[in-house]
Specification:
With 1396 residues, this protein is α+β, with helices and mostly antiparallel strands. It contains 62 helices and 29 strands. Helix content is 57%, strand content 10%. The strands form ten sheets. Strands 17, 18, 20, 21 and 22 form a five-stranded antiparallel β-sheet that branches. The protein has a four-stranded antiparallel β-sheet with strand order 9-8-11-12, with no helix packed on it.
Length: 1396
């Protein structure tokens, strides 16, 4: 059976075919809707069929009467049908009809039909109300019709709220919701009906029993709360228990719903509260607060709920917290503990919206909480909220993180701190906030888009606000004793937190802010940043010296002044201007106080800066013109500019070119009189450091400057910089008048002597001024001058001082004047030393003998306790005699020998050798040697002899040379040589108490040294010839020559036999020992220069004199033993073997050694010394052989054994430095070689890449393993960026050692060098065309940022196309953290060619 059969059964006979469409009879469908005998199933099937066939619907709609009749039938079915499926289908067909026929009259017809049926006694059924609700969904504008022309229908709908059926009420609420959702309908709704609706809704909510009705009803209320007048009506309806329609107030209803266990009701009720509060939070929040709604909201939060409810609760509490009543009456109820616990759980989830809302609520509560009530009385509660904030800041969502940062900024207020103060938690918050700003800064630095700059500035502003709050809190603790006493010292100290804040500011804030400020100008960010920097001066005063220098060298003076000029000119941003001035004042005063300025001057400088900085908002390019104006009102401003230029140049920051500064300052000082000492000091510094950029000062400028200096005596009471001193000594007119006073001020302060050495070497006039200060009255400056001159004398040679005859004359005159005044100061000794050096330069005039006379007289006034002055006098006299011409030496020696006190002092010093200094003894021996030779040469008269214990000097050479200064040994050898050369001198009285009485014939012949003295001297000289010092060998050989001459003169027949006769010895003869010494000396110890000296001093005659001594060694002196190998090099722990053989008859041979000794063996001509594992570092094996002679003579040969060990490790590092290096600064590299032996064969080589830089050898003869440390000073430049430094330890053990030489290398040290931008040229001319570009690219580390001046639009690119630019000058500035450099591009049109 088809659908047509089912629909048309029993009723289709009267219908023609014109009613059929798509197999459906439209007439049957229309007719059966009115018949009661048709089943609901057939009616529903018919309606479904009509809805499926469009042609059938068109046939129903084509005539208005047919459409109206069909609609009436449907409405009748809607009110009369019981079957729910039929009702649903009827509603769908009715809605489709209204959509298919969009006719306002037709809609009004439907409304009228519904109203007529409601008024005819049929109640508002659920189906009719549901249809009306869906009709309003399909036609929203119909809501306005209901509230205007068809208000009667709406009144009937409202009356349906009084029925008992809650499903009907729910449908009514839906209809009302649709009406209140259409704002135009609400505007035409009468006030009476509004009032009635409010009462009916409150009555319904007060008596509802189903969740659906409650939710629908609250939905209507929430929608109604979007209109302020309706909110007033709802909230003003009090308890209506006595009204015909009893109801409860809205706050009480919502509170009851919060207590329900259904989360959906809780969500809707909370949103209703929010809807009320959004329009007028301060007007209606008190009603909810007095109803204890916050308490129930916090309970809901504590019980755990969904994200939807939690977000709603957070939002509601945010609105309630705008009312002060929330805090004044409910603080004991709401508490912050539930919120903290809830946030702790929420931050562990992924819903960032809930996290943001909760953190906003926490921020609001912390911000508006009255200060009298503490939220966190205990440390544990404060730590709990800190945990939440730290976790929030560390969130990967930037918005959540910033909400937590804002909460942290409020939490760090003093009124929220617990007792005791939890510094550890505060430090944790700051640390995570700083890590966030660093992370964000690095992320944005890698992004190329510039659109994120505003967002970056916002993030930076929030984090700086938090950091500033932390600094404020710690500053309050430092200043407030009550807060300081409450600090929890068991965890962190206040000082450590201050240092931590300073580190965060240096490591995180400064890089981030400077990076943002290079791209955009943000007054808010800059103001907060400078406020943070200013607070560091009060937080860490002990660290401000280094921190202020770092700020100055990083260009913060220039940055602040440029920001003032850009953002604060024209009375803009007054608060920023004030912060800039405060920061500059603190920074400048900290820098100036480091220059040892007096307190009164510091106060004057501070007053000038305080007065001038607020109004100083001009660009740096305008400063020269300001310095050139001379009204009295600008004096403080000009002084302020001078101070700022001084400080900036002092720390490597340049506002202007050196030429501009030099010219402006020179004009300033030329036109201004009576400058304060501090200003004049800055002027001198600026002129001195910019002198190279300008011309040399002319006579007029020098005269003006000299007049300014003479009018300011206090200037020289301070320590002037070395550059200023160099500037003064550059001009003779200035150095003559002000050189000595300027040095006095410098030397009065504690200064390093090395600092002035370069000045003395560069400017000879400075040496004379230093001598003048040293010879002045006893003072700290004179003592410092003496120290400087002594250091200078140790570093300078004679030619550096004596090269200028005029300077030498002036120094001699100064010495003569001092001696004539008979002044005895510390400077006299150093002046004598300088004069000694001058005499050694070979320049002698008639004033020398006048000096000699006065110095000789000075000796008569001295005592042996005046060791320092006595040393200078002896040195002067010795130098004088050494360089005195031969024709004048008789005059000089007679003058000195006539000074009995001089000879007494020489005797006292030499007799008290144990108490006299080594230097004084050396000078005494040398002077006495010269006097003795000259007296002997000229047979000068001697008024007093000098007693000398020559045997004591020889004993010192023979037995105490290891404990005696090397120079004293040389001087002693020289004195002994003189004594041997002159034989007997009237000046010397040599003590012979060491000789036995009565004297033997040989002692008498060798008087006064005797046989024992000659023997001891020979032994001592033999030992000295084995040293490695050429001068020592030369002195020993000279003395040996004199000894030979002395012996030949005294005992020519027996001298050789007496000295070299056989000496009883069980192993070897004395002659063999001497031969061994000389052999070792001649073939192993002599360098080429020493051999040349040997020939020069002795020649063939002396060698022929030595040869008879060697010939005395008979054939037995040459031990006939051969070693194979002749030298052994073995690694520690390895095996070693060596053969010893002979070709002569013997009475036994063997090896004497601490390891592997071979006992005496006969009848063998070859024996082997063998050790399987060498465990001794200093092993000395001897192969010996007994001759077959009557005296049992034995000879032996030493096998040289070198035991070596390669290093365990070789490492390289930097000393007292980590991180990148700065260009131009000096750094020290250290190479550590661990456990190597022997170090005398070790060479440490330094490499940069594959280039050898330096190598170091060692003279230590220790055999056992040692640790050696070698350092290398480097001053890297930009070419060294990325270079690799490494060191290598090499053991060069000779030909017998391993080949190639053992080498151990360190790991390479990669060097990163930071350097500022520097263009190859300052200007470039570009001819404008399609190909030419303005290329400003420059190498720098860190990578530079580029800015262009004179462009219409800002650009950060380093390359611009010339075709897009107009002719003109374009300045490109490349900037990084170390500095900036600019280049000017001159763009010309194609028709203009550059001229050269």
């Amino acid at each position: 059976m088809s659908n047509l059969d089912v629909i048309c059964e029993k009723i289709h006979d009267g219908h023609g075919p014109r009613w059929e469409r798509g197999g459906i009879c439209v007439a049957c469908v229309a007719e059966m809707m009115d018949r009661s005998d048709i089943s609901a199933v057939r009616k529903r099937a018919a309606l479904v069929s009509v809805m499926r066939v469009d042609a059938a619907r068109e046939l129903l709609y084509c005539e208005e009467g047919r459409r109206v009749n069909f609609t009436s039938s449907l409405l009748k079915t809607l009110f009369s049908a019981v079957d729910s499926s039929l009702l649903d289908q009827t509603v769908q067909v009715l809605l489709q009809v209204t959509l298919d026929v969009p006719n306002q009259a037709f809609l009004l017809f439907i409304l009228d039909q519904i109203h007529s049926r409601w008024t005819d006694g049929q109640k508002a059924s659920l189906s009719s109300l549901m249809f009306l609700g869906k009709l309003l969904d399909a036609h929203p504008a119909l809501s306005q019709t209901l509230t205007s022309s068809r208000l009667c229908v709406l009144e009937c709908v409202c009356s349906a709220l009084l029925v008992s059926d809650e499903d009907v009420k729910a449908a009514v609420c839906y209809v009302l919701f649709r009406i209140w959702s259409f704002s135009a309908a609400v505007q035409t709704l009468p006030d009476t009906l509004r009032q009635r609706m409010c009462v009916l809704l409150l009555h319904t909510l007060s008596n509802t029993h189903t969740t659906a009705l409650t939710i629908n009803c609250l939905g209507v209320v929430k929608q109604m709360c979007q209109f302020s007048d309706v909110v007033c009506v709802l909230m003003n309806l009090k308890d209506g228990g006595e009204d015909p329609l009893p109801y409860q107030p809205l706050p009480l209803i919502l509170k009851k719903l919060l207590l329900s266990a259904q989360e959906s009701l809780q969500v809707v009720s909370v949103r209703c509260v929010c809807a009320v509060l959004i329009l007028a939070p301060l007007r209606f929040s008190s009603s909810f607060i007095q109803a204890d709604l916050p308490e129930f909201l916090l309970e809901v939060m504590s019980d755990g709920c969904s994200d939807v409810l939690l977000w709603s609760v957070f939002s509601c509490l945010l609105l309630l917290s705008e009312d002060p009543l929330f805090f004044s009456q409910c603080h004991a109820v709401y508490g912050v503990e539930p919120l903290v616990r809830c946030l702790k759980e929420t931050l562990g989830k992924s819903n960032t919206e809930v996290q943001k809302q909760g953190l906003k609520l926490l921020t609001t509560i912390l911000d508006r909480q009255p200060a009298v009530v503490r939220l966190f009385p205990t440390g544990s509660e404060f730590s709990a909220v800190c945990d939440v904030i730290v976790e929030g800041v560390a969130s990967s969502c930037l918005q959540v993180s910033m909400c937590a940062v804002r909460a942290a900024a409020v939490l760090l207020r003093p009124n929220h701190q617990s007792s005791p103060l939890q510094l550890t938690d505060i430090k944790r918050i700051v640390e995570v906030v700083m890590s966030k700003i660093t992370e964000h800064h690095h992320t944005r630095s890698r992004e190329s888009c510039s659109g994120s700059d505003s967002g970056t500035a916002g993030v930076l502003l929030q984090t700086l606000t938090c950091f500033d709050a932390a600094c404020r809190l710690v500053e309050a603790c430092v200043c407030d004793s009550a807060l300081m006493d409450s600090v929890c010292s068991a965890q962190e100290t206040l000082e450590s937190v201050c240092v931590f804040l300073l580190h965060c500011c240096d490591a995180a804030c400064i890089p981030a802010v400077t990076g943002v400020c290079e791209r955009i100008s943000s007054p808010q960010v800059l103001q907060l940043f400078l406020s943070v920097l200013s607070r560091q001066f009060s937080l860490c005063p002990d660290h401000m010296t280094s921190f202020s220098r770092k700020l100055a060298t990083s260009g913060f003076i220039r940055l602040t002044l440029e920001s003032k000029a850009q953002l604060c000119s024209g009375n803009r941003n007054a608060s920023l201007n004030q912060i800039c001035c405060d920061f500059l004042l603190k920074l400048c005063m900290c820098l100036i106080s480091q220059e040892h300025t007096r307190t009164s001057e510091l106060q004057d400088v501070e007053c000038v800066l305080q007065d001038s900085l607020p109004s100083l908002c001009c660009c740096a390019s305008d400063w020269p013109s300001v310095l050139s104006d001379f009204p009295q009102s600008l004096s403080n401003t000009q002084h302020c500019l001078i101070y700022l230029l001084h400080l900036s140049l002092l720390h490597g920051d340049r506002f202007l070119s050196d030429l501009a500064v030099f010219s402006a300052v020179l004009r300033f000082v030329s036109c201004v009189q009576d400058l304060p000492a501090s200003v004049l000091s800055s002027v001198l510094y600026l002129l001195s450091v910019t002198q190279h950029a300008g011309p040399r000062l002319d006579t007029v400028s020098v005269s003006v400057l000299s007049e300014a200096l003479s009018s300011c005596p206090p200037l020289f009471s301070r320590a002037l910089p070395l550059t200023v001193l160099s500037f003064i000594f550059m001009y003779p007119e200035l150095s003559e008048r002000f050189g000595a006073p300027a040095l006095t001020g410098r030397l009065s302060e504690e200064t390093q002597e090395q600092e002035l050495l370069e000045l003395l070497h560069t400017h000879p006039a400075a040496l004379l001024a230093t001598l003048a200060v040293a010879c002045d009255a006893e003072s700290a400056a004179s003592r410092s001058a003496v120290g400087v001159l002594q250091c200078f004398l140790r570093s300078a040679d004679s030619s550096s001082i004596g090269g200028t005859s005029d300077l030498c004359d002036r120094i001699r005159s100064s010495l003569l004047n001092v001696l004539q005044r008979h002044t005895h100061t510390d400077g006299l000794s150093v002046l004598l030393d300088v004069s000694s050096v001058i005499h050694s330069s070979g320049q002698r005039e008639h004033t020398d003998f006048r000096l000699l006379y006065h110095v000789s007289n000075l000796v008569g006034k001295l005592d042996s306790s005046d060791s320092e002055l006595l040393l200078s006098v002896f040195n002067f006299l010795y130098c004088f005699l050494s360089v005195c011409p031969s024709h004048a030496t008789d005059r000089a020696v007679c003058l000195l020998l006539g000074n009995v006190r001089l000879l007494e002092l020489l005797e006292e010093v030499l007799s008290a050798s144990s108490s006299s200094s080594s230097s004084l003894q050396c000078s005494s021996l040398l002077l006495l040697s010269s006097l003795t030779l000259l007296q002997h040469k000229h047979t000068a008269q001697v008024n007093r002899s000098v007693s000398v214990d020559l045997h004591q000097i020889i004993r010192r050479l023979a037995f105490s040379k290891r404990h005696t200064d090397t120079l004293l040994i040389k001087c002693s050898v020289r004195f002994v040589q003189v004594c041997l050369d002159v034989d007997a001198s009237a000046l010397l009285c040599v003590c012979d108490a060491a000789l036995q009485r009565p004297l033997t014939s040989i002692d008498g012949a060798l008087h006064p040294i005797g046989h024992s003295g000659a023997t001891s001297l020979m032994t001592a000289l033999s030992a000295l010839m084995l040293t490695t010092q050429d001068l020592m060998i030369c002195a020993a050989l000279n003395c040996l020559r004199s000894l030979m001459g002395f012996l030949r003169r005294r005992i020519p027949e027996t001298a050789q036999h007496m000295l070299f006769s056989h000496r009883p010895h069980p192993v070897k003869s004395y002659r063999h020992k001497l031969w061994s010494y000389l052999q070792y000396f001649l073939f192993n110890c002599f360098s080429l220069s020493t051999l040349n000296m040997l020939q020069h001093f002795f020649g063939f005659v002396y060698l022929s004199a030595v040869s008879p001594l060697l010939s005395l060694a008979d054939a037995q002196a040459d031990c006939p033993l051969q070693l194979n190998p002749q030298r052994v090099v073995v690694r520690y722990g390895d095996s070693v073997a060596a053969n010893c053989s002979t070709s002569v008859q013997h009475d036994g041979m063997g090896w004497e050694a601490s390891e592997g000794a071979v006992p005496l063996t006969r009848n063998q001509s070859l024996i082997t010394w063998r050790v399987s594992e060498v465990t001794e570092w200093d092993t000395r094996p001897y192969c010996y052989m007994n001759y077959r002679t009557d005296n049992n003579y034995q000879c032996d040969v030493l096998l040289p054994v070198t035991v070596y060990k390669t290093p365990d490790s070789v490492s390289i590092n930097t000393v007292n430095h980590s991180g990148p290096m700065m260009e131009g600064q000096q750094y020290e590299l250290q190479c550590d070689v661990h456990n190597v032996a022997p170090v005398q064969y070790l060479t440490v080589k330094w490499y940069k890449g594959q280039t050898l830089l330096h190598q170091t050898t060692f003279n230590d003869t220790i055999k056992t393993p040692e640790n050696e440390t070698v350092t290398l000073l480097i001053r890297p430049d930009r070419a060294d960026d990325g270079a690799q430094y490494w060191c290598e330890a090499e053991l060069d053990l000779g030909a017998e050692g391993p080949q190639p030489h053992p080498k151990n290398s360190s790991k390479p040290l990669n060097v990163e060098v930071h350097y500022k931008p520097q263009h190859s040229g300052s200007t470039e001319t570009i001819i404008k065309d399609d190909e030419a570009t303005l290329d400003c690219t420059v190498k720098a580390n860190p990578a530079p940022a580029y800015t262009w001046d004179h462009l219409k639009e800002k650009s950060s690119s380093s390359v611009l196309k010339s075709s897009t630019l107009s002719p003109g000058d374009y300045t490109c500035t490349a900037t990084n953290t170390l500095g900036r450099d600019s280049k000017v591009f001159i763009v010309k049109s194609a028709g203009i060619r550059p001229t050269f």
